[in-house]
Amino acid sequence: MTMQENAQQQFLDMVKLAVRDGRLAEHADQLTAIIMQQPDHPAFGRYYGLLCRQQGRMADITNWLAAIEADGRVSANSLTERAAIAAMQSNIGLADDLAAQAFALDESRDDALTIRAKVALYQRDYVRADELFRAALALDPDNLDAAYHHASSLQQQKRMAPAIAMLEHCLALRPGHPQVCNVLEYCYRRTANWGRTAALEPVVREQTRAAIAAGGVPAELPFHALIRYGDDHYVRDVGAAFARTLGPAVPRAAAPVPPPDANKRLRIGYLSGHFYDHPNMHLIAGMFGHHDRENFEIVGITYGPERTGPERQKIVEQTDAFIDFGHADNVNALQQVKAAGIDILVDLRGFTESSRINLCRQRAAPVTVTWLGYPGPMPPDVVDYQLVDPIIAPEQDRDAFGCALAVLPSTYQMTDNTQPVGAPITRAEVLPGLDAETFVFGCFCQPYKIEPELFAVWMEILQAVPRSILWLWADDDLTRGNLRAVAVAGGIDPARLVFAPMMQKQQHLARVQHADLILDTWNYGGHVTTTDMLWAGVPVLAKRGTHFASRVSQSLLHAAGLPDMVADDADGYRDKAIALANDPAALAAIRERVVAARTGSALFDTPGRVRHLEQLYRAMWQRYVAGEAPADIHLS
């Protein structure tokens, strides 16, 4: 090896280490100088493209690619870079094709394999994704991008132990990496590893505060923020920063001249990637058929993997038009939604996984709304309105919400009063070996909603009611094992924690009727879960919340005519649970009220709730036609 080659190898090793440690910008000048001399450098080209993307230097990338491809030649560098850009633009088909071509030219390109793996992960093809991630990591075990996204794939498959191990490997590669810290804290929380949660959560919070103070985008996602903290002001700030990742906001346009008819038949577009057998879809499946077709035309707009099944078919049949733009990139998706002539676009995902709320930010319709999917404040440069109710968005917290609020008179959450409940199932079938005198407390919320303080209160309840069990849902062995270990540490026989297996929705609604009392979670309470329990006729006990996500059960119970089932604090929650377990007559009376709420409460008045929605949509449209900016709208 010549002296020049040796120096170049030393610099290459430094660059690789800098990539791993997030310090690539330190070598920008020397890296750029090398590329100016040799644009298609086999070793440094990949890092120059990464540097430019990290710094937003898209013009430099364009010039660099032009230099590489000046003679019509293609190379692994140019193909991989174009694949990365296509992936950034959500053009995943092109990204996969270009990355495959790049790897065919140079089988050392672990970055090309990583792009292909991330495409497969987006498509939820976990087998292919994991195979490609493993191949990329075999070429470069220090490929942080591949390791991080491989952990994401494992997490989505509920393979929590290997997912956590992979994230811990990532943190060893790059200590303090904000994205890794954020997701690893969530995984510890998700699996009830509360000791490690407590150690990592302050790190994430400080990283978030520092990023926001510096005008940047924190690694902490808005959804993670609302899980961790009962503070909508904090969640609002995280969401406002996150919104910048959605691309530039398109300013609100004035109504055309002459303005549209304020009383025209409105074309309402409901946007969601979950128009299939999904919990949020169970809430609104019965809504579409109740819309007033004389005054409203209803369009379902979906995306993502192709879906079939009776739930999808029901929505297709109950909408006037149904658009599926699949995996279309942002430009194509925006064109399709605009071409549909939507007057009011209602996003159903918010800042959650698989959201396309960027279509609202890019003004796919004259009026934009967000609802249901994301229980946190939404910035005004993303949507015009957020559908809420007076409990989840009380007046004293108005400043925590950025966009205009469209306030429903009852709970904001829709319900389907035709949702079928499965055939009766015996207690012995769902809780084998349990005698008839054992009291069944239950909670079917996802495990990430369970906090150590809440679990400690649950253990106090079990101590006070010796002939009782706690019926839970957890979908992986690691979480179940950790919860049992905490119970043992609290002096509770782990056999008193009974874990329900996954079950089809109708059968699940039938089996939960064998629960005596549902104990709601606190910082992120039950939403669909609480509605399901009440629809099944089972009493729910909640605690008063401090932000949107923690107030939903309170809102639902008020709409069901059961405000007395909301405790003011932890002591009241514990004491009421114990009192009801020891007073069968009082519990039976509450259960009768829950059953009566199915036909006699605002909560399950689906047609009436749809009328309220329509009144709000009309008011939004009238403001737009009048040239007025979005403002809070209240229905009495």
Layout of strands and helices, then pairs:
Blueprint: H1 3-21, H2 28-37, H3 45-54, H4 58-68, H5 76-88, H6 92-105, H7 110-122, H8 126-139, H9 144-156, H10 160-173, H11 178-190, H12 194-213, H13 222-228, H14 232-242, E1 266-271, H15 279-284, E2 296-302, H16 310-318, E3 321-324, H17 330-339, E4 344-347, H18 358-361, E5 367-370, E6 385-388, E7 404-407, H19 427-430, E8 439-443, H20 452-464, E9 468-472, H21 477-489, E10 497-499, H22 505-511, E11 517-519, H23 528-535, E12 540-543, H24 548-559, E13 566-567, H25 570-581, H26 584-600, H27 606-625, E14 633-634
Parallel strand pairs: 1-2, 1-4, 2-3, 4-5, 5-6, 6-7, 7-14, 8-9, 8-11, 9-10, 11-12, 12-13
Helix pairs in contact: 2-3, 3-5, 5-6, 5-7, 6-7, 7-8, 7-9, 8-9, 9-10, 10-11, 11-12, 13-14, 20-25
What is the CATH domain class of the domain at 266-417 and 610-634?
Alpha Beta
Percent range for β-strand residues: 5-15%
**CATH-level-2 architecture of the domain at 266-417 and 610-634:** 3-Layer(aba) Sandwich
Biggest beta sheet summary: 8 strands, parallel
Order of strands in the sheet with the most strands?
3-2-1-4-5-6-7-14
Catalogue the unreliable spans: none
Radius of gyration: 27 Å
Mean pLDDT: 94
Number of strands: 14
- Estimate the helix proportion, in percent: 40-55%
Shape: globular
What is the CATH third-level topology name of the domain at 266-417 and 610-634?
Rossmann fold
The helix tally amounts to 27
N- and C-termini, Cα separation:
81 Å
